[in-house]
Write a structure and sequence with these properties.
Residues 307-513 form the Rhamnogalacturonase A/B/Epimerase-like pectate lyase domain. This is Rhamnogalacturonase A/B/Epimerase-like pectate lyase domain-containing protein. Pfam families: Pect-lyase_RHGA_epim. 14% of the residues lie in helices and 39% in strands. It is mainly beta. Among the domains are: 2-103, Immunoglobulin-like (Sandwich), CATH 2.60.40; 116-280, no CATH class; 519-679, no CATH class; 683-806, Immunoglobulin-like. The strands form 9 sheets. The protein has a 23-stranded mixed beta sheet that branches. The protein has a 13-stranded parallel beta sheet with strand order 16-18-21-24-27-29-31-34-37-40-43-46-49. A hairpin with a 2-residue loop joins strand 50 (675-676) and strand 51. Helix 2 (116-139) runs antiparallel to helix 11 (291-301) and helix 5 packs antiparallel against helix 6 (177-184).
């Protein structure tokens, strides 16, 4: 019988693949000595073949024998893309690729070639569940004769000898589905549990597990009015709650009262953890942890995974003994079947480091602590041009890392090397120099070498750097998500992604959301460590940067330092107490061409600027607006030298070397000033069309005793060609607050000013009257000339409408 693979292939957006795209089909043909399935050379099925020029996306395999196959889709264009191999079953008739992928059910069909490793895997999964159930039974006080022994003596179960004989007969050559079913159809508890401890390379011998083994390991519970022989071993009820032996033969009393208690001698081991085991399997099961921990381990990894416990490979877990080889052995065993390493309660000292170089093998913590060394995740190098795709699908979850080196300089916990698609979730990092480290020195030298990284819901405490990345080129790192982490007391910087000197380095794509960052509190300013704290976040060159919903607290210098940023949005964050030991900004931008928005943030008690733009940055496409501000000249958090004033602390600061001006769309109460390219005043504008918009500016405390330039004009795009309406409100700084309003029409061609209306104290009858005439000078400055007796200090506010802006 034969089938056919045919249809029309469409991309997710409805378009069709390029003409040289194709499907690859391969069939399992053999199994090598390591028990790994071997496949035939792939057969190519073209998409858009030349024989069908009018049928885009068409493909046709021709007639193929029915049976199991694997299919890979390869799309070639501006970017090449290949899927994973999909297992499918081709039946009689014509089928599309998607139909075969969606209909494949491994429970209903198993290819005739059985992978020996899969057999071990399935047996181990069953063993895991059986072992967990046995521990549950014992924890609940069940009698082995009924709860455990029944599983061993199930009628019709194959004897151990029969199973061993059948398995041995099938290990040379192919093992068919019928062979596998016959060998394992009627498994007794002894073969199921023992199989868990016969993984290839485990080093644990296969030994019979009989009812006597279990009886000697787990005692039955005490029963009332029951005959017991001298020396009988049972699990005694409260208040002993543990094993004990009968002092003499006799019948137990109706209740476990004081008299009955005197007839028994409690054993020295009174918990499941302390049971004395008489079998190899019993010892391995007991070491795994109690019943609750076993259930948690299964839940954390998933019932489709295999998990490997370092205690099964000789780990001690006391924090002193060198457990490096045991933990590495557990990992190497897990790597054979894409499983996971479980770290139960204990302190695993790994001075020799754990090296994780196999994709898809995870490290899962269940109360375990890693100390004494590093976890190296990813290969030391990879082939040029592979983009890091040869290492992915790994999780590090729920692990406690403790290097016992609070605020250290070089100690590291987790080191990433050439890894893509890694999840680091729910871990605790403490007492180290760099909790998560990614550096060029570790082999991260190629384009996007560490990418698609997810760092979420972790806690960092007493580290010098929580996340430290130092690469030569900024685009060696890409597309990171750092979300929902708690950074507590990172001595230097919570997140550092830059070169060592802070200049290049960086990341090509970063989503930084919902994180909370604390540094050493300002009340601890006498602590020697206080002098070492710098930033909450420092980033080198970046593109596609999204920073939202974070809390930046108590930085020594600027809270968020951006070096050469490009596309960005910084929205909805809280910044407080920025620049405690030296004047700093909430957001400091150095160089680059920032293109994006800084909006809806809350800025409190900074010491230099809420937002500062410096160096050779081009700021014309930077939009700033709708932020909340609170500044004080005397915040409790300021521990630096000198005083804070409105001449050295600003709401928004733009250096005179910066090209263009950011669009500022907000106002604050008088007393909070901007310093935009040397002009000390509050200003704002909103562009409504190509040339027109609305804007405004404030000038405070201007001394006017003769012609004085108050504002500068341009259009809303910063050119010197402008025209429109300007409303000037002027008032005296004195107690009487005399005021006047002028409506002016201005035009740059002839630098003309036409007064449309003037109301208020405009005649100059007294020195405090804000009475002025208006002209435009050669620098496009609006010049106020006092009239009559007008002379003194005045406040000015300007509002513009049309193709004119004011600053």
């Amino acid at each position: 019988m034969s089938g056919r693979l045919t249809g029309v292939y469409q991309l997710p957006d409805g378009s069709f693949p390029p003409r040289n795209s194709k499907l690859w089909i391969r069939v399992p043909v053999d199994r090598n000595n390591n028990g790994v399935t071997v496949y035939s050379a792939p057969t190519v099925v073209p998409i858009n073949p030349p024989t069908h020029p009018t049928a885009p996306g068409f493909y046709d395999s021709g007639l193929l024998p029915e049976g199991p196959y694997q299919i890979q889709k390869a799309i070639f264009g501006a970017t090449d893309y290949r899927t994973r191999w999909y297992s499918v079953v081709l039946g009689e008739g014509s089928h599309t690729v998607q139909e075969l992928i969606e209909d494949y059910d491994p429970e209903q069909y198993t290819p005739p070639v059985i992978n020996q490793v899969a057999v071990y895997r399935d047996e181990a999964r069953t063993a895991r569940d059986e072992a967990a159930q046995i521990l549950d039974d014992v924890s609940a006080g069940a009698v082995p004769d009924s709860a455990v022994a029944s599983k061993i003596t199930t009628e019709g179960s194959a004897s151990r000898a029969a199973v061993d004989s059948r398995v041995a007969a099938g290990t040379e050559g192919l093992l068919s589905q019928d062979d596998a079913a016959a060998a394992f159809a009627a498994k007794s508890v002894e073969t199921t549990v023992a199989a868990k401890y016969t993984k290839p390379g485990s080093g644990i011998p296969l030994s019979d597990l009989k009812k006597a083994d279990l009886d000697s390991t787990y005692a039955p519970v005490w029963k009332a009015s029951t005959a017991y022989a001298s020396g009988a071993l049972v699990m005694l009820p409260a208040p002993i709650n543990g094993p004990g032996t009968r002092n003499s033969s006799g019948t137990s009393r109706a209740s476990f009262d004081a008299t009955e208690q005197g007839l028994w001698t409690p054993s020295a081991t009174a918990t499941v953890d302390g049971l004395t085991d008489a079998s190899t399997v019993g010892k391995a099961v007991a070491k795994a942890a109690d019943a609750g921990a076993a259930r948690n381990a299964v839940s954390a990894v998933g019932r489709g995974d295999l998990f490997f416990n370092p205690f099964d490979y000789g780990a001690v877990g006391d924090g002193t003994t060198d457990d490096t080889s045991a933990v590495q052995a557990a990992y190497d065993a897990a790597a054979l079947v894409a499983g996971a390493v479980i770290l139960p309660k204990g302190r695993f000292n790994i001075p020799g480091n754990l090296v994780m170089t196999t994709p898809g093998v995870s490290l899962i913590g269940q109360g375990g602590i890693v100390s004494g060394g590093e976890v190296l995740l990813g290969p030391a190098t990879y082939a040029a041009g592979s983009g890091g795709v040869n290492f992915s699908g790994t999780r590090v979850q729920g692990v406690q890392f403790d290097r016992a080196d609070a605020y250290g300089t070089t100690t590291r916990c987790l080191v990433l090397r050439n890894a893509r698609g890694v999840d680091i979730e729910g871990n605790l990092f403490r007492n180290c120099g760099r909790a998560i480290s990614i550096t060029t020195a570790d082999g991260n030298t190629k384009f996007h070498t560490v990418s698609m990284l997810n760092i979420s819901r972790n806690r960092f405490t007493t580290c010098r750097f929580a996340i430290f990345a130092d690469t030569v080129e900024w685009d060696q790192l890409s597309d990171w998500i750092i979300d929902g982490n708690f950074f507590n007391y990172a001595l230097d910087t919570s997140v550092w992604i830059a070169a060592a000197d802070g200049s290049q380095g960086g990341v090509d794509g970063l989503t930084f959301t919902n994180n909370t960052m604390f540094a050493l509190n300002y009340n601890s300013s006498t602590d020697p460590n206080f002098a070492g704290k710098r930033y909450n976040v420092r980033l080198g060159k970046t593109d596609w940067l999204s920073i939202k919903g974070n809390k930046f607290f108590e930085s020594g210098l600027s809270a968020l330092y951006l070096d050469q940023p490009r596309h960005l949005d910084i929205v909805g964050n809280h910044f407080a107490w920025s620049g405690e030991r030296e004047q700093g900004d909430c957001i400091e931008i150095r160089g680059g061409s920032p293109w994006g928005a800084i909006e809806d943030n809350t800025f409190d008690w900074w010491t230099r600027a809420a937002v500062g733009v410096y160096g050779t940055a081009a700021a014309g496409q930077l939009k700033i607006g709708k932020n909340a501000h609170r500044w004080s000249a005397t915040p409790d958090s300021w521990k630096g030298a000198g005083s804070l004033t409105t001449t050295n602390s600003f709401r928004y600061f733009v250096d005179t070397t910066v090209t263009g001006r950011p669009v500022i769309d907000e106002w604050d109460a008088p007393g909070v000033f901007d310093m935009v390219k040397g002009s000390n005043r509050v200003s704002a504008r909103r562009q409504m069309s190509d040339y027109g918009g609305i804007g405004g500016a404030t000038r405070r405390s201007s001394s006017v005793t003769g012609p004085t330039t108050i504002f500068l004009f341009s259009d809303v795009g910063e050119s010197t060609h402008y025209n429109g309406l300007v409303v000037i409100q002027a008032r005296s700084s004195g107690a009487g607050s005399d005021n006047a309003t002028y409506v002016l029409a201005v035009e740059s061609g002839g630098r003309t000013v036409t007064v449309i209306a003037a109301i208020g104290k405009t005649a100059g009858a007294a020195a405090t009257h804000p009475s002025f005439t208006w002209t435009i000078d050669g620098s496009n400055g609006l010049v106020a000339t006092p009239v009559g007796s007008t002379s003194g200090t005045f406040f000015f506010d300007a509002t513009t409408l049309g193709a004119v802006g004011v600053r």
